[in-house]
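Lab notebook page, bench 4
Experiment: in silico fold of construct C2
Operator: M.H.
Input chain length: 417 residues
Purpose: comparison with the prior construct
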Amino acid sequence: MTPLRAPRRDFWLTLGENLRIAVRALRANKMRTVLTIIGNVVAVMSVIAVVSIIDGVNTYVSEKVLDQGLRVIYIDKFGLITDEEEWRLAQRRRDLTLYEMEALEARMRLARRVVGQVQTSKSVRARGTELKNVRIYGTTEGYPDVGKYEMAEGRELDASDFERRRPVAVIGSEVAEKLFPYVDPVGQSLRVSGHDLRVVGILAARGNVLGQSQDNIVLIPMGQFTKMYGSRESLTILVSGQEDVSLDRLEDEARVVLRSARHVPLGKPDDFAISTAETYMALYQTLTSGIFAGTIGLVAISLVVGGIVIMNIMLVAVTERTREIGIRKAVGARRADLVSQFLSEAVVLALLGGVVGVLAGVSIALLIRAVTPLPATIQPWSVAISLAVASSVGLFFGVYPATRAAKLDPIVALRQE
């Protein structure tokens, strides 16, 4: 057994000695060590930080978008437009009207509720204060239910408001706070596009989604909206499904009913678009994946630059320590021992940069989590891959200097001052 164990013990002893020499050499040139590892620090820090931020953004958007529209399909004229050709095709489609909404409401068996909405952005005034770019929604009955809006005060728009086209409004919490900071908004009037609307309710706060406030809105009856702005806008129809009905089945039924109502011939494409919150979420994740891929490319360049710096510094170290190499060879060191020594030094340099980069990346992620609503989390796989790649860079770019040191002639090396 002894002859088999001896080489393994020698290997570990040699590796330990090489690491001690590497650490001693790096400590002897602290400034040079710091400057050498900067490339790896930046690369690894970028990977950790970007992965954490993208993961946090995806989690945040998922919670906000999917939670607010998980059981709803959206039917409109345009849908999710991703290129110019789709835009041109969508522009040629006929507008969606109340007729289609009523057809869906009457014929769909899997729908729990069908509502319509049209939207514009206008200034809103009340008590001498003006609020610009407020989203004004003309809706049909049941919109807060389908849109998952909860009432904070007052009441929803009721059936008589819609039937009589009353000039009443339900306002978002942000509108209420800014226009009526010192009084109860319910019962007050606000002026929109030359029309006075009486506030009958306030929606509970929902916060922001993708930087857009969900509380800067005013809901009014569809008939009142038509009186104010005309009926030229294409309708957006929201359909919520019954319990245990998948969105795919709901979408299929809506498509059949709508094609029939709009007399779309068999074999012709839909002249409307159906989407869900998951549709938009999938597009968003595709975009963030593209950002991540681009970042990886920049990180790769940074790693190559860092590796080249490590190689150059190691070549300088070989030149400076030529006499030391000669002495080691004179007392019996083999080529493999010298290769191992300088490779260890290169790997330690690269790994040191990786560790510092991980600490910096984790700090950035924690800072973002502390000062923003993004739940940025550290992914263990990103740390492991970053450290593995950083070590590999040191190993790859350390081969040439190590081989050059091993090939030095001991006599020539000992003559070197």
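Observations: DSSP finds 14 helices and twelve strands in the chain. The longest helix spans residues 277-320.
Next step: discuss at group meeting.
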